[in-house]
Amino acid sequence: MNKEFFISRNPEQTMKFAEKLIQQIQHGAVICLKGDLGAGKTIFVKGLARGLGIKELITSPTFVLMKKYNIRIRNKAKNRKLYHIDCYRLKNSNDLLSLGFKSWVKNDNIIVIEWGDKVRDILPKNRINIKISIVDEKTRKISYY
What we know:
The protein is α/β, with parallel strands linked by helices and 145 residues long. Helix content is 26%, strand content 28%. The protein has one domain: P-loop containing nucleotide triphosphate hydrolases (Rossmann fold, 3-Layer(aba) Sandwich), CATH 3.40.50.300. Helix 1 (11-23) packs across helix 2.
């Protein structure tokens, strides 16, 4: 799979990139986000949410492990969700499975996972990997594959 990248000069560009990316996804997907603290992972998820018509305030799930939002567009007669998961505090894949991960994947949802390396053994092979690297105070390199 080819690795491509986008250079973002500010948070709004990061959100617009994420919004365009999610509009290309017609069905469910697992998206793994990598990036240091402050790289812009939550900003990226805000863009995904905006592209899915979600109006709720998007915040990091670090302390609650998972946040769930109703997808508002392209959701014909379905109860599709955006799941934003932070695996930083999980011990292993069993912790994520006990939260209901398998049922979320089966139901055509969009699942965004931070710190996905901790649960790599249960992630689908066809996932989308996003790495956000800090270039300088405002600039980010967003690699995707």
